[in-house]
What does this fold into?
Amino acid sequence: MLSRRSFIGAGLAGASGLMFSSLWAQSSPGLGAPNLPAPGFRKMGLGAMEIIAINDGALRRPLGAEFVTNAPLDQVKALLASQNLSTDYVDIPFTPFVVVNGRQRILFDTGFADNGPPTTGRLQANMEAAGVRPADITDVILSHFHGDHINGLRFKNGSLVYPNAKIHVPAPEHAFWTDENNIKNAPDAMKGAYALVQRIFGGLSAGQLVKFNPGSEVAPGITSVTAFGHTPGHTLFTVKSQGKSFIYVADLTNVPALFARNPDWSVVFDMNAEMARQTRRKVFEMIVNEKMVAGGFHFPFPAMGTIAKEGNGYQFKPIA
It folds into this structure.
C-alpha cells in the first residue's frame, strides 16, 4: 500500500525541486545555454502507428553534489568524463511523445507551456511543425504529477492547452497528490507541488479526467506499466502494433549517461530512492529482453532508441 511516509522524507529535496524554485533554478551565465534540436521533432513508424518525439526545450544546471544522492561527486564526474560529457553541468531535455493511431492523437506528458524557464515551452510550435495541432490531441496520458510533466496542460491564464483531449492519470498518483491529509500536513518543501496539482486538475469535469489503474490498457495498443518510486504512482506505457513494441519510460532515468549506466544511483528527484532503483533495473531488463525501442522524457534528443547492457548497467543508443 502506498503511504505518505514512504515517499515524504527522503523525497523532500526532490519535491522542492518540482517547482523549479531551487534545484532547477541553479544557473550560471558562464555555463552557456543548452543546445535545442532543430527541427524539434522526430518521427518513427511503429506498425500501423506513428511515434513522434517532440521537444519542449531543455535546461542546463550546474552539476553539484546534491544531484546524485548516493554517490560521491568525483565518481559522478568520472562517469561523465568517460563518455566525453561535461563535468561542470548536466543538460536536462524535456520531450513529450505523440502516438498517432488512426484518428487518435495521444500525447504522453506535457512539458511547461508558458509556465517554465526561457529555454522551455517549445512543445506547441514543434508539434505544429510535425503536423499536429494542439486541438488535434484527443488524449493526454500522464506518467506522474511532477511539474515538468503537468504544467503544460494549462497556460498561465488557466485555459487548457489541449481543449479537446481527455486527461488520463494514474489513480494512485492522483490519490496521493489530492489527499486532503497529505495537503494539510505537507512540509514547506512540498506545498508548491501540491498547489500546482490543484491548479492543473481543479475544475476538470468527470468526463475530462479519466483515472486508470497502472497495468491496465489505457487506449487501443497502449498498456500502462507500474513503475513506482520516482513518485507514488509513476507509470510507464508500452505501445504495440503489428509485432513492433515501443515503451515510453517517462522519468525512469533522468540522465541516461548517469542513471542508465549506473541504475543503482539515485537522482535527487526520486521520492522513494530504493523503490525507484528496483524499478529501474526491472524495467531496463525488460526492455533489453523484449528488444523494445525506448523513449524517455529526459533522454538526449531524439529521445528514443535502444537499450543495451553495459557493464553493471545499461546504455541508451539513440535511433539514427
User: Anything to note?
Assistant: The chain has a mean pLDDT of 93. The first helix runs from residue 4 to 7.
